[in-house]
Amino acid sequence: MAGHGGQRHLKRQLLPLQSAVPRKGSRWVKKSSPGKHKASESLSLLALLRDRLSLVESARQAKKLLQDGMVLLDGLKVKSLDLPVGLMDVVSLPKTGVNYRIIIEKGVFMAKEINAEQAKLKYCRINGKAIIRKGKVQVNLHDSRNVLMEKEEDRFATGDTLVISIPKQAVKSFLKMENGANCLIFKGKHAGAVGILEEILPRAGSMPSNARLNVGGVPVVTLKDYLIVVDKDFKA
C-alpha cells in the first residue's frame, strides 16, 4: 500500500513553544519544510506572516504576497510558504519598507522590527569549520550556509559570530566569543536572556562546555552551545 509522505501540517497544540504561534485558532498550522533551520527551531513563513504578524488572513493571501515579490527572506525573494524561518533571519516587506529580525524573547521566537540599514546585515553563529580543496577554509554557520575563505583570512573560532551582508554574504565584521562578550541565550530554560559572558566552564570528557553569564546582575549558567554573540547594544 502506498505511503502518504511526511505530514505537512502540525496541530496547534503540538507546536514547539518557541514558535510563539497562538494556540487558539484553526486546528492545523503549516509545518516548515526541511531547510536551513530544524523544524524544532523554526516556524514556517506562512505561520510567521499569518499567525504571528497577522499580515494576512489566509494562505491564499500569503501566496499572493510571495508571487508579487513582496516578501524577502535574508534579502532574497521566496516562493514557498513552508520555508523555515529561524534565529536571526531577516524578513523584509519592500513595499511597506518594514523589516524584521527573528530573535528569541522570553523563550519564544519574536519578529523584532529593525531599520533598513540593520536589515542589510545578519548575525550568524559559527557552528564548525573544515579545510577543503586547495587549502580553503569552509566556515559552517547556524543557518546552514557556508562561507569560503582563504586560510590566511581565517581568524575565527567555533562559537564566534560573523556579521555578514545579505544577500551577498560578504563578511563585514565578527564578534568573538570571549569573556566580556554580549551574548543572547537562544536555547534552554534561559532562552531569550541577554548577558555578559564571564567564563567558559569546560567539563570532563566529551561533555559540552558550560558558560557563566551575568544577566542583569544575576548569575546564569547554560551551555556554551546555547549562546550567540551579539552587539553591545543588542536588546531582546
Uncertain stretches: 9-17
The CATH class label of the largest domain is Alpha Beta
Count of discrete domains: 3
Hey, roughly how much beta strand do the residues contain? 35-45%
Calculate Rg over CA atoms. Answer: 19 Å
Largest sheet descriptor: 5 strands, antiparallel
Number of strands: 19
Mean pLDDT: 88
Short description:
The protein has 236 residues and is mainly β.
Textual characterization of the structure:
With 236 residues, the protein is mostly beta strands. It has three domains: 9-116, Structural Genomics Hypothetical 15.5 Kd Protein In mrcA-pckA Intergenic Region, Chain A; 120-175, OB fold (Dihydrolipoamide Acetyltransferase, E2P) (Beta Barrel), CATH 2.40.50; 182-230. 7% of the residues lie in helices and 39% in strands. The chain contains two helices and 19 strands. The protein has helices at residues 45-52, 59-67; strands at residues 9-11, 28-30, 42-44, 72-73, 76-77, 84-86, 90-93, 98-105, 108-114, 121-131, 137-141, 146-149, 161-165, 171-175, 182-185, 194-201, 210-215, 218-223, 227-230. Strands 5-4-7-8-9 form a five-stranded antiparallel beta sheet, with no helix packed on it. The chain has a five-stranded antiparallel beta sheet with strand order 12-11-10-13-14, with no helix packed on it. The longest helix is centred in the first third of the chain and has 9 residues, at 59-67. 32% of the residues are buried.
